[in-house]
Structures are given as structure tokens and as C-alpha cells.
Amino acid sequence: MFPFIPYILIGVGIAAEKIKEEIRRQSYNSSTSTYKESVPTPTKTIAFVGATGAGKSSTINALVGYPACKVGAEHGTTTEAAEISYIGGYQLQDTPGLMDDTDFSFFVWEKLKRSELVIYIATGQLYRPELELVERIYNSQKRWDSESGFSNGRKLALYINKQDMKECSMDSSTRRREMQAIKEQVSSWIPRDKIAIGASLPVSRGVRKPARIDELKQLIQQSLKANIEYASNNFDWEVERAEAVIRKCRERVEEQYNYLKERNKK
To answer: In angstroms, rounded to a whole number, what is the distance separating the alpha carbons of residues 83 and 80?
Structure first.
């Protein structure tokens, strides 16, 4: 009787989706008065950073289970940021050494800005330049979260690699003391539950052994789960607002339909 009604309903559905998306966008903008378009919300990326030779590439290879990144004995093997697919739609970001002879700092920094989780890799107690870098990453993440309206969205963790080498030169009590010292070094920026130890490319008596990265895998899973839960809770109220708008639009269409239907009977 009213062939145009389905088209009205389709139009309302499209408009409602646009309204829903606008509400989501505005919720980011209104959450902070210092929002800047140049600072994006973090993407599903896990970035690995650290000094040259810390084992960033070999750690990524251990996580994905195949040689995705080039690993070599020469100084500074990684010269560009490579992205490797990981679980849950996440990407693992390999980066050049931040304190290499060549200045990759700005190049790497742009990658960190877009990463949901940044894992700093070291092989023992951190030197002063490394501690300053960890502090800078922590403070930058806080600022980026504030400017992009994604509070506590970016996470920072620490992975102490090459424990197989430590086992050859230190007894267990010495290793425990060193680990305690490392936790105290970074306590202002990285909580204890965001620190893992392991060996991404262990060697024993000249024979390569399976990677020991269970702690790191658990750390990553817990960090990503926390962010997923945060995002879900943060957008619940937005979904409710969007659904309310959609219901209102449908009510108006039904009212108009009933009005036209009654008028046609007359």
C-alpha cells in the first residue's frame, strides 16, 4: 500500500548507523579538552623496542614460531620497522635499535605512538640512557592517551631476555638479586606484573634450544585482555546512546506510517 515505507526504513537505518558512529567519534573528542587530531588512538600493535642486540627480532620469531624477522650476529641487523601478523588480529612491530649509531629515534617514536602495547627488551640491569628512554616512553604514552581520549589505552612492559647466558655466568641467588634490582630500577614506570624474563634464542653447549618465552606470552595475553575489557566497558554507554537514537527514529517512522495508513482509509 505504501511502497515507499521500506525505503524510509532503510534510510533511517543508514542514518542511525551514521549517528552511532558520530557519537563514538565525539566521545573521544569530548573526553579531553586537549584532543589533537594528530594523535591517533592506539592500534592493535605490539611494538618491541630496546638497544641494539637485545633480541627484539629473535623474540618476535619465537612468538610467531617461524623466522619472520632477520636475525644476525652483525651490529644492528634490523634497519627498518617490520610488522608481523600475530594472534587476535594484532601486529608485532620490530624496530631498529634505539641507541644504535644511526638515529632511528623519530622513526621508531611514530610507531610507538600507534602501539597498544610497547615491550622494552633488555638483557640485564638497565643503563642510565635506557632508564631515561623507558621514562620517556611512559610519559609519552600518558600524554598520547590524554590527547587521543583513550585513557590508559597504551601499556608499557619489560622483557629481560637472554637468561640462558645469565645461567652460564651467575648462580640462581645472584640472578634473583639482579632481577630484584631491575624491578626496583623501573618501578616508577613499569609494575612488577608487567615484567617477564626468558630466553628467545637459547643456546646450550653450542646447540640451539627451544625458546623459553612462556612468561612473555602470559604477560602479553593479560595486557591485551585488560585493554579489550577496558574498551568494552568504555563503549557500553555509547552503544546505549546509539540504540536510544535508533529506537526514537523507528518510533517516528512507525508514527508516520500509522498516520498515513489511517488517512488512506478515509
So the answer is: 10
Q: How many other C-beta atoms lie within 10 A of the C-beta of residue 223?
A: 19
Reported as a single tens digit per residue, the pLDDT across 9-54 is 445 455 445 444 544 454 444 444 343 446 778 899 999 999 888 9
Chain segment 182-218, per-residue pLDDT in tens: 999 999 999 999 999 999 999 888 888 999 999 999 9
The DSSP letter of residue 210 is: -
110 exposure class (CB count in 10 Å sphere: 0-12, 13-18, 19+): exposed
Nearest to 19 by CA among 177, 246, 252, 263: 246
| C-alpha span between 78 and 56 (Å, rounded) | 9
- State how far the Cα of 155 lies from the Cα of 193, in Å rounded to an integer: 12
Q: Specify which residues 43 forms β-bridges with.
A: 115
